[in-house]
Amino acid sequence: MSVTRKELMMIQDEILAAIVANDKIIIHRHERPDPDALGSQVGLAETIRASFPDKTVYVVGGGVDHLSWLAQMDDISDDTYQDALVIVTDTADTPRVDDSRFTLGKQLIKIDHHPNDDPYGDLTWVDTSVSSTSELLMTFINGSAGRLVLSDAAARLFYAGIVGDTGRFMFNNTTPQTLTIAAQLISKDFDPAAVNQKMNEVTLGQARLQGQVFEALKISAVGGAHAIVTRDQIERLGLADDQVQAAVGTAGRLGEVVAWMLFVEQPDGSYRVNLRSKGPIINGLAKAHNGGGHPLASGAKAKDLAEIDQMVAQLDAIIEAN
Predict the structure, then answer these.
(1) Mean per-residue pLDDT for 187-205?
(2) Which domains occur in the chain, in start order?
(3) 18-49: pLDDT as tens digits
(4) I need a labelling partner for 222 at 20 to 30 A (CA). Which of 90, 159, 244, 276 fits?
């Protein structure tokens, strides 16, 4: 459902009013965070701290592992949620919110750029037209008539979020507004080249996994591709589960690949599925297999090899239909 410009401004005004009215704010994001999850979560926290120094702001969730250079989480008790405003960024549905205590506050706000299939929260602001939740929050700051201050620390985080979700500005979600905001961010006092370099780094194990994915990749006649990453591979390479994400874009570097899936075996024998596309819409396929996401970048689940075969056939059918 689309909203008018007037309605959009009202939502932003309500969110700002909630931030102003609350002295204690707790911000969550999704599990297994990517740069936009952390960038939007902690970037918003840094913005509130710079704008309202007397407020207490916490960022919570599980370990950030390979993104620990970007931000760290706070460790808070259940009691901290009493009379707190809770904001969840970059998280489409409640099962993916990292730390289930997000429901314990007195008010809940959802801010996201994924399709709004689960409109949770007392206030919900979702805009799928922007590249990232980090970009969305920058429109919030820029539209606040100076009430929200963009600090250097927040700019670094938002920049990382935008770079991550646009694939270094290579994805088609990069718009003139995206680049304008990126230019605004790099005018602040941080080193964007250092952020870019850090985001481009992989471990030796991740590099070897990418090579193994190329070796295992199966490409259909219509340009559908898939590969399976087993638990044995992950363990032999000494990788944590979140480090496997570095191999998701591997197949897309091949010119003959139109859309692809990476199936990552889980400890229980099921598979986490990463779906990506250069054109055909694949989030409907993800939704049909206990997932969802963006039209060209989604996630799903497969319970066994039979479901993998089913998804491979369905992906080819989607490509052929386009």
Answers:
(1) 96
(2) 5-199 (3.90.1640.10), 207-320 (3.10.310.30)
(3) 999 999 999 999 998 999 999 999 999 999 99
(4) 244
Among residues 231, 199, 234, 243, the alpha carbon closest in space to that of 69 is found at 199
Here the tokens at position 33 are: 């965070």
**Cα angle value 308/309/310 (rounded, 5°):** 90
Residue 146 DSSP SS3: coil
pTM for the whole structure: 0.91
The rounded distance, in Å, linking the Cα atoms of 54 and 36 is 26
Of 122, 112, 119, 101, give the one whose Cα is nearest residue 14.
122
Query: Is there a contact between 241 and 209 (Cβ–Cβ < 8 Å)?
Result: no
DSSP secondary structure code for residue 256 in this structure: T
282-316 pLDDT, tens digit per residue, is: 999 999 999 988 899 999 999 999 999 999 999 99
Backbone angles phi, psi at 282, to 5 degrees: -120, 0
Give the DSSP letter string of 169-222: TTSTT--HHHHHHHHHHHTSSS-HHHHHHHHH---HHHHHHHHHHHHH-EE-TT
Give the whole-angstrom CA distance, residue 213 versus residue 229. Answer: 7
Closest CA relative to residue 38, chosen from 184, 179, 148, 198? 198
Task: Collapse the DSSP code of 299 into the 3-class scheme (helix H, G, I; strand E, B; otherwise coil) and give the result.
Answer: strand
Kindly state the tokens that stand for 254: 């091949």
* Calpha distance 6→155 (Å, rounded): 27
Q: Do the beta carbons of residue 118 and residue 102 sit within 8 Å?
A: no
Task: Please report which residue ranges of the chain form alpha helices under DSSP H.
Answer: 5-21, 35-51, 133-142, 152-165, 176-186, 192-200, 204-216, 231-236, 283-287, 305-320
pLDDT digits (tens, 9 = 90+) for 106-143: 999 999 999 998 999 999 999 999 999 999 999 999 99
221-244 as b/e, with b when 16 or more CB fall inside 10 Å?
ebbbbbbbbeeebbeebebeebbb
